[in-house]
Design a protein that fits this description.
6-stranded mixed beta sheet; single chain; 5-stranded mixed beta sheet; alpha/beta; binds adenosine-5'-diphosphate; elongated; 15 strands; 43% helix; binds magnesium ion; 508 residues
């Protein structure tokens, strides 16, 4: 070999070595990046860990907090609000009743016909209308005059089928999805507006009275028979169809629960009397808090950046409003810490850009190459060309976040069952599991898009109920989906709290 040729050969070898070194270096760096991805995943898995032992601690904490909230006003983060609902519809109700649901941007009017035979089919008609934006920040008179006019129009369209005898007033259940302190089943004071409403002259004012006055101004002879929280409407609807229903849970955009409590257990309100001996308590469980909850740095950040820090801690780990955003936060940290995809899209830093239904679609993607995951990452978060290995990691993150949410919701439900002695342990003072306790059939009505629309969430929740309660007890606990408790349920409550009924709730 000539000198020149030798020089070329050496040069080629050197280039080859350099290329190989670059490749090895890249591989090492890539391995380092994947390691960092794996570390973030491991940390989030550990942080969200919800072993059955930990869930049982949450169950106990829920039952204890329920006691505390019933013992004194402000005794717990659980408000345990009295609803004055003392009789739940049982299928014997007859006649035509109305409901009005003022939720967020829409309101709905319903007419429900009841035949008195616990018929599983309730005939009803619904009319939905948007609330004009300017009325959401106007005066209470403007808002309620508008609602009363719309209700009057709805009623004027009524045919002859209303089954209302001429000597009876129309009665209405009013579902008002804002925090209220009730004084009776048909009166309650607005604590504060949420969801974009801000009608200053209404804070501290009796809400049904505002509606009642507007109805009078429109010469509509109708009585507001019940002021209803949507969870309570769900319980009423569940109980109408199945009298073993003792509690209800909503798991949708937000989460809440209510249940039937013995009146003598409501210590903070001495001298309360109801004919049934029971009253529905609205727990406002979204605000539940316990140090046993598996909380991660993502939850802490989400909370501190929210408009209501330190509030609704349980809700922020469970409900549809938040799950997608927890997943977004984990993906963001993963990509930032690993640098696996280079620069990060600005979309990934936008709070709430990843909605929970999108997260569910990624989680439930069963295509072999996770096509839906790739599509959502590209279209929603503007992260193109995500390798399959990373798509699998994203699915795992969705799984971890949803599994924790579902298991915590299950623990909350068992907490209620424990409080009312339906968890097979003989109640809060029973001290552990007893095989000789006879379990009654126990139904919990469940409503909400997260539970009904997200199959894996629902499956994880049921699995956790079985684990916590044990199969022998769990087989007596039935979760039943209801639809439109806030509408139909409110009309049913108007029926069971009709002025033509004799049952009452009063103070001694
Ligand atoms: P709301 O709670 O606002 O009264 P819904 O009970 O219908 O209304 O719940 C809607 C919420 O449920 C959505 O905001 C979303 O978070 C969640 N959700 C609805 N469908 C799905 C789905 N298929 N997968 C996951 N979450 C869903
Ligand atoms: Mg709802």
């Amino acid at each position: 070999m000539g000198r020149a040729a030798a020089g070329v050969a050496v040069g080629v070898a050197a280039v080859a070595c350099a290329v190989a070194a670059v490749a090895v270096g890249r591989r090492i760096r890539s391995r380092g990046k994947w390691k960092r991805v794996a570390r973030v995943l491991r940390e989030v898995e550990e942080g969200c860990e919800g072993s059955v032992g930990r869930l049982r601690q949450v169950v106990d904490a829920m039952a204890v907090e329920m006691h505390a909230g019933l013992a004194s006003e402000g005794g717990s983060k659980l408000k345990m609000l009295l609803t004055y609902v003392h009789t739940l519809p049982n299928g014997t109700e007859k006649g035509t009743y109305y409901a009005l649901h003022l939720g967020s941007t829409d309101f709905r009017a319903l007419r429900v016909h009841l035949h008195g035979q616990q018929s599983s089919v309730l005939e009803h008609e619904v009319e939905q209308q948007p609330i004009p934006q300017h009325l959401m920040t106007s005066t209470s008179k403007d808002l309620f005059d508008f609602i009363a006019s719309s209700l009057k129009e709805f009623i004027e369209k009524e045919g002859n089928g209303s089954e209302l005898s001429p000597d009876r007033r129309r009665e209405l259940g009013f579902t008002f999805s804002f925090p209220v302190k009730q004084m009776s089943v048909s009166s309650g004071i607005l604590i504060k507006w949420t969801k974009g409403f801000s009608i200053v002259d209404m804070e501290g004012i009796d809400v049904p009275a505002c509606l009642q006055e507007a109805l009078a101004r429109k010469e509509l002879d109708m009585r507001v028979a019940a002021l209803v929280n949507d969870t309570v409407g769900t319980l009423a609807l569940g109980h109408y169809h199945d009298s073993d229903t003792v509690a209800s849970v909503i798991i949708g955009t937000g989460t809440n629960a209510c249940y039937l409590e013995r009146v003598d257990g409501i210590i903070k309100c001495q001298g309360l009397l109801t004919t049934s001996g029971y009253m529905v308590v609205n727990m406002e469980w979204g605000n539940f808090w316990s140090s046993h909850l598996p909380r991660t740095s993502y939850d802490i950040d989400l909370d501190s950046e929210s408009p209501n820090p330190n509030d609704q801690g349980f809700e922020k780990m469970i409900s549809g409003m938040y799950l997608g955003d927890i997943v977004r936060r984990v993906i963001l940290r993963m990509l930032l810490e690993s640098d696996i995809l280079g620069p990060i899209s600005s979309k990934l830093s936008m709070p709430f850009i990843l909605r929970t239904p999108m997260m569910a679609a990624m989680h439930e993607d069963d295509s072999p190459d996770l096509r839906e995951v790739a599509r959502i990452l590209k279209d929603i978060l503007e992260i193109p060309q995500v390798p399959l290995k990373l798509r699998k990691v994203v699915v795992k993150v969705c799984d971890v976040v949803t599994r924790r949410a579902a298991r915590l919701a299950a623990a909350g439900i068992v907490g209620i069952l424990k409080k009312i002695g339906r968890d097979g342990s003989g109640g809060i003072t029973g001290g552990g599991r007893r095989s000789d306790v006879k379990m009654k059939r126990t139904v919990v009505a469940v409503e909400g898009g997260l539970y009904s629309g997200y199959t894996l969430f629902r499956e994880y929740l049921h699995e956790a109920l079985n684990e916590i309660l044990g199969e022998d007890i769990a087989k007596h606990v039935i979760l039943k989906v209801t639809e439109d408790g806030s509408g139909i349920g409110a009309a049913l409550l108007a029926a069971s709290h009709s002025s033509y009924n004799v049952d009452t709730a009063k103070m001694l």
